[in-house]
Specification:
The structure holds two protein chains of two kinds. By secondary structure, chain A is an alpha/beta fold. Helix content of chain A is 38%, strand content 21%. Chain A has helices spanning 11-21, 36-45, 59-71, 82-98, 125-130, 146-163, 173-176, 243-258, 261-264, 284-298, 316-323, 338-346, 364-373, and strands at 6-10, 26-29, 52-55, 76-80, 102-110, 116-120, 139-141, 166-172, 179-183, 227-229, 267-270, 277-280, 303-308, 310-312, 328-333, 351-355. Chain B is α/β, with parallel strands linked by helices. The N and C termini of chain B lie far apart (57 Å). Chain B has helices at 4-11, 14-17, 28-42, 61-64, 77-87, 99-105, 107-116, 161-168, 181-193, 207-211, 219-229, 233-238, 261-276, and strands at residues 49-53, 68-71, 92-98, 121-126, 129-130, 136-137, 172-177, 198-203, 230-232, 248-255. In chain B, α1 (4-11) packs across α3 (28-42), α3 (28-42) crosses α9 and α6 (99-105) crosses α7 (107-116). In chain B, the strands form two sheets. An eight-stranded mixed beta sheet of chain B has the order 2-1-3-4-8-7-10-9, sandwiched between helices. Classes of the chains: A alpha/beta, B alpha/beta.
């Protein structure tokens, strides 16, 4: 593989490189704009290092294949965009229910339906949270730069392995298609799947361990025979309808994430210490928001930025803390207000939104207009 | 001599998953018995086998057998199996599906698995109906036959599963019935042993949802119908097409020796490696 240390990189390419650095060795996907470069890049690089690339017949089978590969012990990933993401939802729910680590990249484009195939959007914030059915947790990360496409993809794999959960990299088309000069970090932390600590006869893949410790998933073929199903299951993995076991199964899914919010949630604060106004923005919009903060500060307005890097679980506590200090939240988004809804839920204080759905980036000026036009 | 009951018991998970969900007279148990005997014959250990299934009556087979087992989403079993096989080619993967699972919702995955010639064994239990959801018509329900969603008789032309997968490029295609249980053993053994994508269609009776509605009689009557209408493939080929009627061929229908997906992928790895030099 070429050396990618100090180089101009494409967001999608950086994401694929991050996956390789994290140890991903199986990619299954179906072409869809604006995510295709990830598949194209990996189709060249994976065979060189003993990994597997396969172009499946559709997005449904792509998601199924990465779950299968992960069950066989290989870190796996797929990449798609809005409509393909919709098709993956059922199997995404399976990965969540059966607790199979894997990473799903969704490079968002305008929707609904075929929408705007090459234009960026942030329309899948809620789809990434609630696209599949039933109660389930999910981890969703949103990068704002090419460098973050790299580092956050590694982080996504680490979280997937650590919490035995699917993790979604929610990139907007702008971040995915951006070129930037980046210096990739020399040292990265990679978390691999732990070995089981018990012999096969004692192994229960869905055991409830004290302290919320998560049972390692042993690859198929390693002598630990067990059953994996998308049905509600007991701790050994077999279907159950016993009330207590049903509740235990679903509670466990939720609480393995809920009890570790401090570890999972990442945010970035910019000039928030003395701010009266807090902009909440993620992905490419956060870059415009940061510039808006600079402009506002130069005009003497006390504006700061909160950037949720972890979009789900939503950083509600951070927001609640900030709401005690600030008078107004401004939420710019490339949709009609999906994060805005979460901000309102977290903080009954005043919040306004800046929306744009025409496939163009929200500019700092547009955010400033809202700030200046809203009386405090 | 191996006693069937002993062999069966060795592979079941009796303390965890029984009683099973299948109706009295259902043929899936016979198919499961044949599968177990075929696996016993291959000599593979339990850890070397992965049993993947879809959703539906036959999809429950993975729950009852003591292998690495995976009960997937409806119609998608072959996709999950593809991922497992490519991630660990040493594993022998058997995918159990029903007719609705394999040819309706999973039809796309079935035809592409054939074309890709991925080294898996697909066992399709064909009982001509959606049993678990209460007897709706499937892509193999014969014309004019009744189902809960075809009360006036089905007006859709049924799939011939074997012809379908043959046309799509499967390396090994065979058909047997629950009447011909021993033949089913032998065919499954050949299919598991075969490199490339193998399909075995096991015709099975569904006396409760299909047979009852279509006045097919008892489970024994339905199995006798299999006996009376099946015919060996060479003999079947000699029958003029106008005189076939309800008769169908059993035995091995296709047996090709072609490079499978993994063999071809190894060529890619070689090429990619050469590029680097």
């Amino acid at each position: 593989m070429k050396k990618y240390k100090d180089i101009v990189l494409h967001g999608n390419e950086a994401c694929a490189l991050g996956a390789l650095a994290a140890g991903m060795r199986f990619f299954a996907g179906y072409p869809i704009t604006p995510s295709t470069e990830i598949a194209e890049f990996l189709s060249v690089e994976l065979p060189k290092i003993g990994g597997t690339f396969i172009q499946m017949e559709d997005e449904i089978s792509s998601m199924g294949a990465i779950i299968g590969a992960s069950l066989a012990g290989v870190k796996s990933m797929t990449a798609t965009s809005g409509p393909g993401f919709s098709l993956m939802q059922e199997n995404l729910g399976f990965a969540s229910m059966a607790e199979i680590p894997c990473v799903l990249v969704n490079v968002m484009r305008g929707g609904p339906s075929t929408g705007m195939p090459t234009r960026p959007s942030q329309g899948d914030v809620m789809q990434s949270r609630w696209g599949t059915h039933g109660p389930h947790p999910i981890i969703v990360l949103s990068p704002q730069s090419v460098l973050e496409c790299y580092t956050l993809t590694i982080h996504a794999f680490n979280l997937a392995e650590k919490y035995r959960s699917p993790v979604i990299m929610l990139m907007d088309g702008l971040v995915g298609h951006m070129w930037e000069n980046v210096q990739l970090p020399e040292k990265i932390e990679v978390i691999d799947r732990p070995e089981p600590s018990v012999p096969p006869d004692w192994y229960n893949p869905y055991d409830d361990l004290p302290g919320g410790e998560i049972v390692p998933l042993v690859p198929f073929g390693d002598g630990y025979r067990y059953h994996v199903t998308g049905m509600v299951h007991d701790k050994s993995g077999f279907p159950t309808l016993v009330h207590e076991e049903v509740e235990q199964c679903l509670d466990k899914l939720i609480y393995k994430i809920k009890n570790n919010l401090h570890d999972i949630i990442r945010i970035e604060e910019y000039m928030l210490e003395d701010a009266d106004i807090c902009i909440v923005a993620h992905g490419s919009v956060a870059r415009s928001a940061r510039e808006a903060v600079n402009i506002a500060r130069s005009e003497g307005l006390k504006v700061g930025l909160l950037r949720p890097i972890t979009l789900w679980p939503f950083p509600r506590f951070h927001l609640e803390n900030i709401s005690k200090r600030v008078k107004l939240f401004v939420v710019p988004e490339m949709n009609y207000g999906q994060v805005y809804g979460e901000v309102l839920k977290s903080c009954p204080k005043r919040a306004v939104r800046v929306t744009r759905v025409d496939g163009e980036l929200i500019t700092p000026a547009q955010i400033m207009e809202k700030i200046e036009g809203t009386a405090l | 001599m191996i006693h069937t009951s002993e062999t069966m018991y060795k592979y079941l998970r009796p303390d965890k998953t029984f009683p099973h969900v299948w109706c009295p007279g259902c043929g899936i148990g016979i198919v499961m018995g044949a599968l177990v005997r075929a696996i016993e014959r291959t000599g593979f250990t339990k850890d070397e086998i992965v049993l993947v299934s879809g959703i539906g009556c036959s999809g429950r087979m993975s729950t009852y057998l003591d292998f690495n087992t995976l009960h997937t989403t409806h119609g998608r079993a072959l996709s999950f199996a593809t991922g497992i096989k490519l991630a660990n080619p040493k594993l022998n993967i058997i995918v159990v599906m029903g007719d609705g699972d394999a040819t309706a919702i999973g039809g796309n995955h079935l035809i592409h698995s054939c074309r890709r010639n991925i080294d898996l064994t697909a066992l399709i239990v064909n009982n001509n109906i959606y049993g678990m959801t209460g007897g709706q018509y499937s892509p193999t329900t014969p014309m004019e036959h009744k189902a809960s969603t075809a009360q006036y008789g089905s007006i859709e032309k049924p799939f011939d599963i074997c012809k379908l997968v043959e046309a799509c490029g499967a390396s090994f295609v065979a058909r047997s019935t629950t009447y011909h249980a021993k033949m089913l053993d032998a065919l499954l053994y050949r299919a598991i042993d075969k490199k490339g994508f193998s399909v075995v269609e096991a015709m099975s009776q569904c006396p409760v949802q299909y047979g009852r509605r279509n006045k097919k009689g008892s489970p024994v009557d339905m199995m006798m119908w299999f006996k009376n209408n099946s015919i060996s493939n060479p003999a079947f080929k000699k029958i003029p097409s106008g005189e076939v009627g309800e008769q169908f061929p059993v035995g091995i229908l296709v047996d090709l020796d072609e490079p499978d997906y993994l063999e071809r992928y190894r060529q890619i790895v070689k090429k990619a490696g050469d590029d680097r030099l």
